[in-house]
Design goal:
11 strands, single chain, Beta-Lactamase, disordered C terminus, rod-shaped, 3 domains
Length: 482
Amino acid sequence: MIARRSISLRLTVWFSAVFFAGLALFGAVMWFHLKDTLTTGRSQTLERRADRLGDLLRDTQANPPEQLAGRFQAFADATGGGLMEVFRTNGTLALPSPAAAQTFPWPRVTPIARDGFSEVAFLGQPYRVLARPFSSGSQALVLCVAAPLEANRNVLRTFLSGLLWAIPVLLAVSALGGYALSRRALKPVDEIIAATRSISVSNLSGRLPVPRTGDELQRLSETCNEMLARLESAVNEIKRFTGDASHELRNPVSFVRTTAELALRNRQIDAASRRAFEEIVAECGKANLLLKDMLTLARADAGNSRLAFEPVDLVGLVRAACHKARLLADQYGHTLAVHFEQGCYATVWGDYSSLYRLLWILLDNAAKYTAAPGAIKVTLATAGEKATVTVEDNGIGISASDLPHIFGRFYRADPSRSRVEGFGLGLSIATWIANVHRASLSAESKENSGSVFKIVFPLLVVDPRQPESPLLRSLSATAAPR
């Protein structure tokens, strides 16, 4: 799922994950370092107490036992809360126990190690114990001192609690800051995307904005603009070639057709020659239609369509086109039904002949790609400031793989399915006419289930009682498009 998100979100997620890992590692290292520091400090404290106890025993070894015991009791009470003992190597006490140390669980000590540390629990609290061998004259002793570790544990718990609170807060702040910075850094990318979407084959003169950042985004924009310049040059050459070729080929094809038609007037030609000349005339007619369509698209690409825009009654236009299409439908053995909403009134801003051609292309395709006896239905409906013309048939339909490409130039469906000859330019011209008139042309179809083509127009007059629509007001402020 992360791969489908924006770069900003992915960067924020990865940055937050790395930052969290870094914080967790830093916190763990600091916690163990603090624990080691506190333990070392406590151990050093016990070692100093043991050293002072050893000095006391050396200074008082010549004193009577009662005086030595008193000095030891006073020293124990004054340091470490009285948690100290002096054992013989066999585990018996060499001096009387201080009051605080009498019930302390001193480990069984033996002189096997110097400065040996251990930890014990007493009354539910942890303690650190140091057992150090000591020689007092001819007597071998073991000095034991202990100190509580609860203060150390409280410090560690406080530190850990602070980490558990600080890490989420720092993580949230860093994530928000990282997201804001990434959005700011990638803002030029959004501008590049918006500019790229506005550029099409008919608008290759557009260029991407170049951020003056001196980084990869600037180099990417400059490279894309250079590529667009090369594409614009190549496409313009193709457009010029298509227009010039269409224009120049019309005269030779017309000449060939005229010559063949003159030859057919000769009643003395043999049957084989007559059939050949008839095929030439037929093929020249198809070539003329192709050249006419190519020339139309070439002029449209060059912006020289020369359309005369005016208010057009869409209801009358649909009636006129369907009246002519009935003859075509009868020829193919189909029925043609026309339906208008009750009280339908639709006026659009456009070129009458071009709109007629748009509707005729859809009706012609519906008749050709529907097996007899078929049914064709044309509907005109209005909703708000939109008018929708629908051409529906129950013909062979369009496969899902072909449907996204049918409006492309020279696109032909699978030849094994197509029963109709054509050049694949009709729907391209229909799309161009729709775009020029600010309309949208769409298709819905399923294989062997028929097709539905819809043209949605912006209405010039929504209601005759309110003749001035937003579109009419906008158009009245500008010249009619050409």
